[in-house]
Amino acid sequence: MRKTLLFSAFLLxxxxxxxxxxxxxxxxxxKVLLNGVKLDTTTTLDDIIKVLGEPVVYKAYPxxxxxxxxxxxxxSVHAVDGQLLFMGANFNWDGDxxxxxxxxxxxxxxxxxxxTKQSNETIxxxxxxxxxxxxxxxxxxxxxxxxxxxxxxxxxxxxDLVTQVGFEFH
Length: 170
Hints:
By secondary structure, this protein is mainly β.
């Protein structure tokens, strides 16, 4: 009995070490935070690796753009020559191979509104301080507040459930 209890405690400890809490926030001044670290056009892939660990290369393009996946976290990162271009999370995979099929582990909030795997399009009504434009049915993009704001959010829905939430940096 004691060996079983010790083994169970060991497994719990190992799973807690492997579990990683990811917190992505898009706040009203078009600022993106990853676990409290500001992401912008100066963020490098190495900066992301310091927070999330090593990703897997999903696809490398001859232009210098590389798409990375964090399969265990449900996160996709795109970089050009090592500079962050995009970070997004998959909630309900819709076949977009730019995202891992696994669901996002963590918390994403936009203007204080938290998105979950069960979020549907009505959640967009709760975002008050950021203007979103519907580019086509089920696809929203935030409108930058000024020319100096270079980050924006993109949100996709399919079958009335959120598929992906991402942040672009230009």
